Amino acid sequence: MDNQSDMVEHCSYCERQKLLDMLNEALLLIDACNYTVTFMNKKARVMYGYPNEEVKRLHVTDIDCNSAEAIIYGLELVKVDVNSSRIFTSSHRHKNGRIFKVQVSVNFIKFHGSETFVAIIRDMNPYLRLKEDVVKAERIQRKFLPPDIDNEWTLMKSIYQPHGHISGDLYGYKWYKDDPILFGYIIDVMGHGIATALQTATLRVLFQQVSEMNIPLNEKLAWLNRNAAPYFVEDSFAAAICFELDFSKQRLSCSASGINHFIISNSGKKKIVTIPGPFLGISEKVSFDTYEQNVKSGDYIFFFSDGLSGQIPDSSGSVAANFESEYWKLARLSASGVCVDDATAMCFYIK
Length: 351
Description:
Phosphatase 2c, domain 1; single chain; 10 helices; alpha+beta; 7-stranded antiparallel β-sheet; 2 domains
């Protein structure tokens, strides 16, 4: 009878081990008395490189790079509150000697009558590599940004404050060869991830191409909308605003596609200008308007992405403050953390 009970218990134990082997997380069972490894599931055996027959000869110090005293102290802390787990990062060792970063989550339980630590192990190296890639992508994005301008016609000071590491915003400009005419744009692609960055880079190339075309500004935006459509996946879109500043004629022209507002100080009065225009990528068969405005020395114009537009109060008709104070007010706002999206601006002062 006892033999039959032992057989049933053994079969039950084996079935539990099979279930643990099905987990997609690396799991270790550690004896809470002598700190030896009593079980590694399949995921853990692959992670550490040990075959099943070698697992029970392992001590925690064989896989954890910390001192024995530090490892045991950390495990014993889990016994203090048996209802909670302890989560920490560490460096673990593969059988071949390779060291890798891990996140460990440990619980203390009774397993088949034995006091046992249950450790879930997550290899952090893929996450660390991804983080490194994201930081590199951020640096590359910033290299796309042109320098600020200070010449005989205008002063342009920029603001670029990504909400995360990778921004969906981008801005740029191009001077025409023969005349003092500046073509500029701000792009705001929905999202913040790698795919968003790729779409933003694609739109930048298209803006550079369309800047060479001798067609009206609103037709440039229509061309860009048609040619950008293949690069938008389902349910994605972008907002943009593009403009031309003709300094010889002292004339501003502007077309909008989703970024429908900008600020202008003209003749000492400040106003918010609204231009209709649908988002890019929604439909290929849309048209865009062109707004035109005379400008003169002392005027300033602020173009900005949606991350800032929701934070700027409507002060149309008020007396304009000087350019520098208005710029720094906007810069402080973008850096304050109140913006829930990427914050980008191109701020022009007409000389």
